[in-house]
Amino acid sequence: MGGRRGRKKSHLKMPKGKKDNNPAASGSSPPPPPPPWIELPRDVTANILRRLAPVDILENARGVCTTWRSVCREPSLWRVIDLKTCDDNPRRLFGPDDTCRLAVDLSQGELIEINIGHFGTDDLLLYVSVRSSNLKRLTLARCDCISGLGLTRAVKNFPELEELHLVFMPGISALDIESIGISCPNLKSFTFNNRAFRFPLVETDDSYAMTIAKNMPNLQHLRLFGNRLTSQGLEAILDGCPRLESLDLRQCFMIMADFQGDLGKKCVDRIKHVRGPSDSTADYEWDARIFDDEDDVFDDDYDDIYYSDDYYEDYGDYGFYEDYDDYTNPFNDLPFPANQVWYMDDFGDYI
Fold first, then answer.
1. CA-to-CA distance for 172 and 155, rounded, in angstroms?
2. pLDDT band at 27, cuts 50/70/90?
3. Which Pfam families match (predicted)?
4. What whole-number percentage of the chain has pLDDT above 70?
């Protein structure tokens, strides 16, 4: 008998034009799926980005992907700019002033609200005003380098301003308030909050109250936290601002006694929401401490700024002359550290 025939081995061939996509066979791993945030609708992405601080958008979010960078350029994202707690950490690519200017530029004239705290100059405020004629709400808090002249010059470019909130701005005078009232006839909400002092260590001052009563007749909401007005000043406000719906007089200690009588009753009868001189400050968003005199305020602020550990915490890592070359660097006049010029091709990429 003949030997048993061996079975032929089958040799399967891949069809021409097709490649083996088996990762195990090819020895390579498949590409990772795109991040889930890339596929989000633009309006959802914009809603997420609005929750970030402006400096975080400029320094971080814009570099996540091309989609986010595109959304970050949309003027609608910059209609509200909140810089009340702007970070001036020296490690930041942009300081508060540059962050503000870039954010205003990105708004392309659509800015309707801006809040600035603890920084700013007259020049910066003017920069904002000439590019934001549609502004409706402005808050300035502890902006020590913004003068009354700078503010009155800027508000002339805000014909549609409806809300102005000034907190701890001692450089603003009653005459400045008068000019603001004339320049902003549509003003409906005004805040002029100061530090409170223990009675009777400070003099009374009705100049602000009288000016408000005479020049802001359309006010609906008025906050005068820590003001030195007397009963006469409050009476003038009640007569000159008949449309008031809310009035905050907390820590206005000069009217404490009269407010407990007929004057307080008159306010409550005419105005829907009234906060009296002795009402709680638990929900007050700013510093509600009471000082003996103005020298105490200066000393306290000075200590907070220049003698806190936070003020010096970022300087231990640097030698005094370590960055001397920056002073001769041709890029030294740019609004970011000279050693970070590599970060972008040109400054226009940030706008």
1. 13
2. low
3. F-box-like, LRR_6
4. 73
Looking at residue 4, its amino acid is R
Mean local confidence (pLDDT), 183-208: 88
Question: Got the DSSP string for 95-148?
Answer: -HHHHHHHHHHHHTT---EEEEES---HHHHHHHHHT-TT--EEEEES-TT--H
Return the half-sphere exposure (C-beta side, CA atoms, 13 A cut-off) of residue 244. Answer: 29
Q: Which residues 6+ apart lie within 8 Å of 224 measured at CB?
A: 192, 193, 208, 209, 247, 248, 249, 252
Cα dist from 293 to 50, 62, 78, 195, whole Å = 41, 47, 40, 9
Rg (CA), the chain: 30
Domains of the chain, with CATH numbers?
78-281+288-316 (3.80.10.10)
Question: Do residues 96 and 88 make contact, with C-beta atoms less than 8 angstroms apart?
Answer: yes
Beta bridge partners of 197: 291
CB 54 within 8 A of CB 81: yes
